[in-house]
Design a protein that fits this description.
This is HD-GYP domain-containing protein. With 351 residues, this protein is α+β, with helices and mostly antiparallel strands. The protein is built from 13 helices and 9 strands. It folds into 3 domains: 54 residues, Molybdopterin biosynthesis moea protein, domain 2; 197 residues, Hypothetical protein af1432 (Orthogonal Bundle); 47 residues. The strands form 3 sheets. Strands 8-7-6-5-9 form a 5-stranded antiparallel β-sheet, covered by helices on one side. The chain starts with a strand and ends with a strand. The chain binds fe (ii) ion (FE2). Fe (ii) ion (FE2) binds next to loops.
Length: 351
């Protein structure tokens, strides 16, 4: 049966070899549609495709038996330890409980084989295959969100759910062409519009599976909404956004700013806190963002920093009303209050 692109769903089976106009083979007959295949069809502007009538949805999960999947699984298990450790170095504190949250959650996804988990495993694998950056970002967001959830006193079940929400919040990016995801220069208006469609696309992708928790789907849709209504795609105000989406929004922004990227150095945590202090009150849930800032900065008390005047210093006191500009002790024994000396900034942490 010939089917237009908008009706083709993950799990269907392509019923023809597909070629570009120049004769390059792009998809083989009987290929199972994955998010990456959908993205490829869009990239090559293929509007309609022959689909096998009895689309074997179970084939979607046959990747579990492939050598590539086994190697991904062992990599993911190794990565759990190093990612947990890397978050610790960001937060400069150890939290065994959070490590257990992450390990349990990923292990459940990777080792248990109930039907719901198979859907999720397939998507985590697709994410890893499509973009290592999205995969790493998503795992980190899940970890940061679980920290914040614990700091806010949420239940163990809610914290586990936050890890899953973090893992899948950006799943819609698998349906965005890689050239846009990795473009280092400014995006065109058209490209920006496409990128901003990832929450809707992610929701639609997850919504194909009845057994995925509706709150995970909701976070995929709402994690770019902001409390002042300035977010997207629905421009919801805070009262219409659930707590999980609000927590993932904070973790998402923090991870995106502090993680090292190919095209820039990681942004100093004090600069990120300055951003949250300036914008956070309006854009994010105030109570959550304040808890987050306080906990993050607690972990940087007594840390060494490099100042913009070239001096090294130690953070001595975090001011209540200007948390991003602490009192520091200079290496020559003097003190400098950054809340008063606004021309000096913290450039980076010194390990
Ligand atoms: Fe996103």
């Amino acid at each position: 049966m010939r089917m237009s692109l908008e009706n083709i769903k993950v799990g269907m089976s392509v019923g023809q070899d597909l070629y570009t106009e120049s004769g390059q083979l792009i998809i083989l007959n009987n290929t199972v549609v994955t998010p990456e295949i959908l993205a490829r069809l869009k990239r090559f502007k293929i509007n309609a495709v022959e689909i096998n009538d009895s689309a074997p949805e179970a084939d979607l999960f046959d990747i579990k038996g492939t050598p590539a999947f086994h190697s991904f699984k062992s990599e993911a298990v190794e990565a759990k330890e190093s990612l947990s450790a890397s978050l610790d170095s960001i937060l400069q504190q150890s939290s065994d409980t959070v490590h257990i949250d992450i390990i349990n959650n990923l292990s459940t996804l990777l080792y248990e084989s109930n039907k719901s988990n198979l859907h999720l495993i397939d998507m985590v694998y697709s994410m890893h295959e499509y973009s290592d950056a999205i995969y790493t970002h998503s795992v980190n967001v899940g970890m940061i969100a679980s920290h914040l959830g614990r700091w806010l006193g949420l239940s163990d079940d809610d914290i586990k759910l936050l890890v899953t929400c973090g893992l899948f919040h950006d799943i819609g990016k698998l349906l965005i062409p890689k050239e846009i995801l990795t473009k280092s220069g400014d995006l065109t208006a058209e490209e920006r519009k496409l990128l901003r469609s990832h929450p809707q696309k992610g929701f639609e992708l997850l919504d194909q599976f009845e057994d995925i928790d509706p709150r995970v789907k909701q976070v995929a849709l709402l994690h770019h909404e902001r409390c002042d209504g300035s977010g997207y795609p629905l421009h919801f105000e805070g009262k219409n956004v659930d707590i999980y989406s609000k927590i993932i929004a904070i973790a998402d922004v923090y991870e995106a700013m502090t993680a090292e990227r190919a095209y820039r150095e990681p942004i100093c945590p004090f600069a990120v806190v300055a951003y949250f202090e300036k914008e956070g009150v309006h854009k994010f849930e105030t109570q959550y963002v304040l808890k987050f800032i306080n906990k993050i900065l607690d972990s940087y008390l007594h840390s060494k920093v490099l100042l913009s005047n070239g001096q090294e210093a130690t953070v001595i006191l975090i001011h209540k009303n200007m948390k991003s500009r602490p009192l520091v002790k200079l290496s020559d024994g003097g003190f400098l209050d950054l809340a008063v000396n606004l021309d000096v900034e913290i450039l980076r942490m010194v390990s």
